[in-house]
Design goal:
CATH class of chain A: Mainly Alpha
Helix content of chain B: 25-40%
CATH topology of chain A: ABC transporter involved in vitamin B12 uptake, BtuC
CATH class of chain B: Alpha Beta
Radius of gyration of chain B: 17 Å
Structural class of chain A: mainly alpha
Oligomer: heterodimer
Number of helices of chain A: 15
CATH architecture of chain A: Orthogonal Bundle
Radius of gyration of chain A: 20 Å
CATH architecture of chain B: 3-Layer(aba) Sandwich
Strand content of chain B: 25-35%
CATH superfamily of chain B: P-loop containing nucleotide triphosphate hydrolases
Distance between the termini of chain B: 33 Å
Shape of chain A: globular
Strand order of the largest sheet of chain B: 6-7-8-3-9-10
Distance between the termini of chain A: 23 Å
Number of strands of chain B: 10
């Protein structure tokens, strides 16, 4: 039986998530793994926006902030269960992305980058300054999701970090599955088409403005869900989650790994989450090494790490 | 089928079409020829809706379409193969064709694709390859096939011979001529005036945003003014 690209991508992803724990030297790695998966969820959203539709956003951390703070605030002010709070956060992010995206997505290239950057800064300013509600720069506590306690009650012995490893891993598989389905759908083709040529996309009947808006809204939902997962996992949240550094991190992870492919972007999220840990051997030169690695990858592997490596391996095989 | 009256269009403050009149009847191949910069491409872009119109009217099958967005004109039966082909290089040949039928969601899409493969066997051979890997002539065939997937009653072709070797140019013109048998009306914009007039029923000669001459294609080929200025004979 020959697997389609979608099936093989999902299979690889599930195998990695399932088998990685066998190689973990300590329980701490479950924690790192879950951070990788949460980052990867946000980055899969960037694949849809940047890899498929060719649009850039330097403000998506703003949506992660909304998703994160929804989990902190909605249980307190609305009495919602944290899981419902996360859904509410995703809904708010989607509506906001729709309203903000309509005027912003008329812009192209660096104009779009600056406008989205502005949006992200706006969200993080609000979160920092509305101290009475958000707790300001010190952050705010987030209630427990309660799912682990429920599982433990039913006899499943699972530590907190293990629970979040599997839960985030599941979220990533679902996110990747949805993104891969979108890739092959008519909408996904339209997104990739306008990436190639907006004029040609219009001549075949694609409503380019609407298609871009769809990609923007979907990717905002991914970022929002990732933000909620971070908040629920850490049991607290600070405005850093919405900061522009976090936005740039998301774009970098997607582009470094290979923005065009879901697996590549997950690879990018993995590398950029793990690399700082590995590079600590360089001590005070850690940041310099990180920057150097990023520059070298972009100079020598323009399509991103994974696609370039795959192309190289295939090239040698022939 | 298509009536353009007093069409004006501008890029910023510079007007490039100064009131054009063009008529395309059902079943015809009509060509617009003229030198580089005469405004031929702008004319087609106005008709397909990529370029805003600043004056005049465009009537297509009894409907004023000048202010309908481009993506909605496909559904009215107006397909364009844009200048420079503009195929989706990062998508496969088959995906390009499916995008041509983007507005349709019925079983006829697959049938139309089979027809496209019959018309252009090379596209069938390369259906799963990225379109960017096709040669120039193959890309032009894909651009025409993609436009036909939109089930046009009128096809707008912008410079299909551009950048192609002479033998491929002849092949492309043969394809355009054969569209008649598919009941597709064609408006063909070309710099290759002789080739275009040879296969067309009627022609217009454009000069700096105006129609300079018009008439039956055979008469234009014979017209000494056209021969001297555009055919280089």
């Amino acid at each position: 039986m020959k697997l389609s690209a979608k099936q093989s991508t999902l299979l690889v992803l599930i195998l990695i998530i399932a088998l990685a724990p066998f190689f973990f030297p300590s329980a701490f790695y479950f924690r790192i793994g879950s951070v990788v998966f949460v980052n990867a969820v946000a980055v899969v959203g960037m694949v849809i926006l940047t890899g498929y539709a060719g649009q850039i956003s330097l403000g998506h951390a703003g949506f992660a902030g909304i998703g994160g703070y929804a989990c902190a605030l909605a249980p307190v002010y609305l009495g919602l269960h944290p899981a419902l709070a996360a859904l509410l956060g995703a809904l708010i992010s989607a509506v906001l992305a729709y309203l903000v995206g309509r005027p912003i997505l008329r812009l192209k290239g660096y104009y779009l980058a600056v406008a989205t950057l502005g949006f992200g800064i706006l969200v993080s300013m609000v979160l920092s300054n509305e101290t009475a509600i958000t707790g300001g720069p010190d952050g705010i506590k987030v209630p427990d999701l309660g799912l682990r306690a429920w599982l433990v009650d039913r006899g499943l012995k699972i530590s907190n970090s293990q629970f979040w490893y599997w839960f985030s891993g599941l979220a990533l598989v679902i996110g990747a599955w949805l993104a891969l389905n979108l890739h092959e759908s008519a909408t996904g083709r339209a997104l990739r088409a306008l990436h190639g040529s907006e004029i040609a996309a219009r001549t075949v009947g694609v409503d380019v403005a609407r298609a871009k808006l769809i990609a923007f809204v979907i990717s905002a939902i991914y970022a929002s869900v990732a933000g909620s997962l971070i908040a629920l996992q850490n049991r607290m949240i600070t405005p850093d989650i919405a900061g522009y550094m976090h936005s740039i991190e998301m774009v970098t992870m997607a582009v470094l790994g290979g923005a065009g492919s879901v697996l590549g972007a997950i690879f990018g999220a993995t590398i950029l989450t793990l690399l700082p840990q590995v590079l600590t051997v360089f001590q005070q030169y850690e940041q310099i090494m990180l920057g150097l690695v990023m520059m070298l990858v972009m100079i020598f592997m323009r399509d991103g790490l994974l696609p370039s490596l795959v192309a190289r391996v295939r090239g040698r095989g022939e | 089928m298509l009536t353009v009256e007093g069409l004006r269009s501008r890029y910023g403050r510079i007007e490039v079409l100064h009131g054009l009149d063009i008529q395309v009847n059902s079943g015809e191949i009509v060509t617009v020829v003229g030198a580089n910069g005469a405004g031929k491409t702008t004319l087609l872009r106005c008709i397909s809706g990529i370029q805003p119109v600043s004056g005049g009217s465009i009537m297509f099958r009894g409907e004023m379409i000048a202010h309908i967005p481009a993506y909605k004109r496909v559904g009215r039966g107006l397909s364009q193969s844009p200048e420079g082909r503009q195929i989706f290089t990062n998508l496969t040949v088959e995906e390009n064709l499916r995008l041509g039928a983007y507005i349709f969601h019925d079983a006829r899409v697959d049938k139309d694709m089979q027809d496209a493969f019959t018309m252009f066997p090379i596209l069938k051979e390369k259906r799963n390859l990225l379109a960017g890997g096709l040669s120039g002539g193959q890309q032009q065939m894909l651009a025409i096939a993609r436009a036909l997937m939109g089930r046009p009653s009128c096809l707008l072709l912008d410079e299909p011979s551009m950048g192609l070797a002479p033998i491929l140019v002849a092949q492309i013109f043969d394809v355009v001529k054969s569209l008649k048998s598919l009941d597709v009306t064609v408006l063909l914009v070309e710099q290759n005036a002789f080739g275009a007039l040879s296969i067309a029923d009627r022609g217009y000669v454009m000069e700096t945003g105006r129609i300079a001459f018009s008439g039956r294609a055979q008469e234009l080929i014979a017209d000494p003014r056209v021969r001297e200025a555009y055919l280089g004979i």
